[in-house]
Amino acid sequence: MKVSKQQAAEHRAAMVDAAARLFRERGFDGVAVAEITRAAGLTHGGFYGHFASKEALAEEACVHSFAEALERMGVAGDLDRYLDTYLSPRHRDARGDGCPMAALAAEIPHREEGLQGKFAAGVAAYVAGLADELRRAGFTAAEARERALLTLAALVGGMALARATAAAAPDLSAEFLATLRRELAREPPETAPRT
What we know:
The protein is mostly helical. The protein contains 10 helices and no strands.
């Protein structure tokens, strides 16, 4: 049975959405194409009508995951609220909906160049978004860029460690989240008057 262009676009979007969630939850190699199509409510047979390979789907899913993450940053409205959301037990425990960087960064060096490029572009956009928030909070452009890089590294590394220790050492996991939240909330440095 032939599907309309609109239905085909909906099917493609459903596969990208399902793949983005499943890849963040279980990694690229932990998910089969059949599981992605099933999670999207589709049959496996139509997959290759939409994507040349699982890696091609992974590229689109990566872009989709970063778009969602950047949207969450914007919806938060300010950096403090965003830090509260990012460094929460809910984010730590909801891996399929969480940050693509914390979930997938360790896998990216082992993937094809196309996916590495999409991931790098997402990270660059994320740094730019954080820098924008930090400029609004009073940092100069140069300070904001540097602080954004530091903040992102702390968020991603901290979330990865909080997730890795949550089951075996829940107190240590909570300590990672609380310490990062406290340290990343520091005010911009006093700047000397410009003449």
